């Protein structure tokens, strides 16, 4: 006679309960990575990123909790904010930017005024001609000083742009969000992000109108967002993408 393999009633119920608990735990473990994967699969694109979208006011963007509150740059009327956990403000850099901006704005305004004054001589006497010549000389000197100051300001802009491309963030102007930079790891719908090869960038977007832009960047108009474009900044190695952003055509101020 074969021995019965049935367990006593109480022990059988306990075994069934244990198996059910293990199954439930396994289901939860399986579901967790899927949820995490869905969260990390957010696309960086025309609709924005992490709840921050084109045209959004700075106050509304800050309310999402995704951005740091203190600016890392305020050049050209643009207020740049880092993503939470990104670079902190550098007081020395902010002070240098403010001085470069003030100097360039001041000298350009003076140069414009001097140029207008030099174009309207008051007479033809020797004294008046001498005065006109002095005004011309002053205008020329101010123009040279303004040009030099503009070069310095351009250098600060380049430093800002490189930092923004590397870390991402959000830049705000008079119309709200002006530029949104992808943080490391974020990718477009076509899978392009920091670290992607330039060959893959061209493969993904050449047929859609990708073209060279300023400072070695590549630009792509966003059809569904008139007045906005993608910008892809090359990395220092010259063969990969260093940063991705969406940018409003209008200026910050």
Provide an overview of this structure.
- The chain is α+β, with helices and mostly antiparallel strands and 253 residues long.
- The chain has two domains: 1-41; 58-248, no CATH class.
- The protein is built from five helices and seven strands, in the order ααβααββαββββ.
- It has helices at 9-40, 58-63, 91-118, 126-167, 198-205; strands at residues 79-81, 169-173, 176-181, 211-212, 218-221, 228-234, 241-248.
- It has a seven-stranded antiparallel sheet.
- Strand 4 (211-212) and strand 5 (218-221) form a beta hairpin.
- The longest helix has 42 residues, at 126-167.
- The radius of gyration is 30 Å and the shape is elongated.
Provide keyphrases for this structure.
253 residues, alpha+beta, Colicin import membrane protein, 2 domains, 7-stranded antiparallel beta sheet, 5 helices, signal
Give the helices and strands as they follow along the chain. HHEHHEEHEEEE
Number of domains: 2
Order of strands, widest sheet? 1-2-3-7-6-5-4
Mean pLDDT: 86
Beta-strand residue fraction: 5-15%
Quaternary form = single chain
Largest sheet: 7 strands, antiparallel
Radius of gyration: 30 Å
- From the spread of the alpha carbons, the general shape counts as elongated
* SS class: alpha+beta
Helix content: 40-55%
Number-wise, the strands total 7
Low-pLDDT segments, ≥5 res:
1-39
Q: How far apart, in Å, are the first and last alpha carbons? A: 95 Å
Describe the secondary-structure layout.
Blueprint: H1 9-40, H2 58-63, E1 79-81, H3 91-118, H4 126-167, E2 169-173, E3 176-181, H5 198-205, E4 211-212, E5 218-221, E6 228-234, E7 241-248
Antiparallel strand pairs: 1-2, 2-3, 3-7, 4-5, 5-6, 6-7
Helix pairs in contact: 3-4
């Amino acid at each position: 006679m074969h021995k019965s393999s049935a367990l006593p009633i109480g022990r059988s119920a306990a075994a069934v309960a244990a198996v059910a608990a293990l199954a439930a735990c396994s289901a939860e473990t399986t579901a967790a990575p899927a949820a995490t994967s869905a969260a990390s699969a957010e696309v960086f694109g025309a609709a924005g990123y992490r709840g921050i979208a084109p045209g959004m006011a700075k106050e509304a963007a800050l309310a999402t909790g995704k951005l740091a509150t203190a600016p890392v740059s305020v050049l050209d009327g643009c207020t740049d904010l880092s993503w939470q956990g990104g670079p902190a403000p550098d007081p020395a850099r902010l002070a240098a930017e403010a001085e470069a901006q003030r100097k360039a704005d001041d000298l350009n305004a003076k140069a414009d005024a001097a140029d207008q004054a030099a174009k309207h001589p008051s007479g033809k006497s020797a004294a008046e001609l001498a005065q006109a010549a002095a005004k011309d000389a002053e205008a020329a000197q101010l123009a040279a000083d303004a040009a030099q100051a503009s070069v310095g300001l351009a250098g600060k802009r380049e430093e800002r742009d490189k930092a923004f491309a590397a870390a991402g963030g959000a830049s705000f102007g008079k119309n709200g969000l002006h530029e949104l930079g992808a943080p490391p790891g974020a990718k477009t719908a076509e899978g392009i992000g920091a670290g992607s090869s330039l060959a893959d960038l061209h493969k993904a977007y050449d047929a859609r109108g990708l073209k060279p832009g300023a400072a070695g960047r590549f630009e792509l108009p966003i059809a569904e967002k008139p007045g906005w474009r993608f910008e892809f900044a090359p990395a220092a190695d010259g063969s990969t993408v260093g940063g991705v952003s969406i940018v409003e055509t209008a200026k910050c101020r």
